[in-house]
Amino acid sequence: MGESMFVSLAFLMLCTMLQRVWSHGDQPLSKVAVHKATVSLLDLAYIKASPAILGQEGKTAEWITLEYSSPIPSIDDWIGVFSPANFSASTCPKENRRVYPPLLCSAPIKYQYANYSSPLYIVHGKGFLKLRLINQRSDFSFALFSGGLSNPKLVAVSNKIAFANPNAPVYPRLALGKSWNEMSVTWTSGYGISDAEPFVQWGPKGGDHMHSPAETLTFTSDSMCGSPARTVGWRDPGYIHTSHLKELWPNRLYEYKIGHKLNNGTFIWSGNYQFRAPPFPGQKSLQRVLIFGDMGKEEVDGSNEYNNFQHGSINTTLQLIQDLENIDVVFHIGDICYANGYLSQWDQFTAQVEPIASAVPYMVASGNHERDWPETGSFYENMDSGGECGVLAQTMFYTPASNRAKVWYSIDYGMFRFCIADTEHDWREGTEQYKFIEHCFASVDRQKQPWLIFLAHRVLGYSSCICYAEEGSFAEPMGRESLQKLWQKYKVDIAVYGHVHNYERTCPIYQNICTNEEKYHYKGTLKGTIHIVAGGGGSSLSTFTSLKTKWSIFKDYDYGFVKLTAFDHSNLLFEYKKSRDGKVYDSFNISRDYRDILACTMDSCPSMTMAS
User: Fold this and answer.
1) Residue 483 in contact with residue 443, Cβ under 8 Å?
2) 180, 277 in Cβ contact below 8 A?
3) Which of 199, 443, 452, 487 has the fewest CB atoms inside 10 Å of its own CB, making it the most exposed?
4) Where is the Purple acid phosphatase N-terminal domain (predicted)?
5) How would residue 578 be classed by pLDDT, with cut points 50, 70 and 90?
6) Whole-number percent of the chain with pLDDT over 90
7) CATH of 281-596 among 3.60.21.10, 3.40.50.970, 3.30.1370.100, 3.30.1360.120
């Protein structure tokens, strides 16, 4: 008992130390000291917003112009965007009868300094600013503050502006379903089930269309586990709808649009979209999969720049949009948008990825910034989710997991079998998740689906990040120890992780030893698993250790993503591309036959008998 307790305490202490190195700076909105806000309205100060009505042509995003003036301008004056428009204390719910809310009910959904596009603001006290707003189910107002972010004083409040239909269905995101011939469509709206009937109108391109109903979810601040998610970061999420389109024909092109039938019989429609149905398990066709982690979101108008740490996010998004015709599936393996308890940022993220997620399945995994919160069952006892404790991620994005709160699941896509783990829940031997991982590996028919891929957020395999190297683990503590015998036994080809914000590739490896001397053109049996870190989707980059490791083949301190291309059952191409230009900077290919998968390697086959 004493030894077991000592091991557990040592493990928790190590996890605590590791958490310190994942600090990327605070979420930008957390810099606004909402609780210190005071009213200092000035007669000669003003802020005006135009146009008053947005989205009159069905647009879900528009640029607006602000004009503002202050008689006592300062370099730290700033402008906050608030939605709903009424952010006064009178609308704030009290946490309890002894705690009174601050002047501001919630943090602004974005902000910018008054001199950002008007350098002479500090001289003349006048300025203008262009901001991009998305439809977020409510009206907007804009406030001019003095005193900086740490001691905000409200100087002026603008007129209100709004989208023509703030409740409109927006930001569809596709996901592969629980069956290979199923596609799920999730979207957000302001219509509850008592207001309208949600559905998807869909069918083969050029063919007959049908309606499929959608389930509707929402939640309240009581579902949040802590601050800021249930206090200043809280914002009504609206309603999240998911419809399941079934019995699809493999590789057929379908078109769809999302709609709501109002109680008065009228219909509210989205724009038109299309997707290609997935191939059936084992189907021989060109299959292209993109994988990355830790992308986050970034504002195209330059707002939220203060201590912003997701500098590569827009570049990654744009590269995927530009190459969308050559992408079949996207896996975003954790640390999705870094809302960190500021719920408005989930709308911003789904708007940012909509051109991708509305056209190809956008599959997600759970990361520390989605799930972790003390005493809520997460494997790591930290506060990285900002109080969200997984609720936002598992509601905003559909996954075919048997329990949406435990985000581990498998995907059969043509010649691929993907096994997606949830590193924020215990994966160690004997746990529920460990049994799932082994079953996912063991149940695939490698003759039909030769390419077996393991995906997870935290690095359970190998990484040269200085954060891991300083602890001597080169991965999450107990990761390899728990899972490497499964990777080896079931001959997992490639394992891909996020969490560490850079790119790295190992040799095929087992028990810290390279099992193949080749680096770029693998033929026959790998004899081990190739481990990839692909956490450079957009968040601040992670530093490599100066220590030299024999198993590390390629490292890159930059933003990027990886792409797997299966040409047939015997040939796979792996590519690493940078987000800045979309060019390939590392690659390898695997060529083999089915008998190479069957071949025994160390610890991959059961004991044999010579008995006849």
Assistant:
1) no
2) no
3) 443
4) 170-276
5) very high
6) 82
7) 3.60.21.10
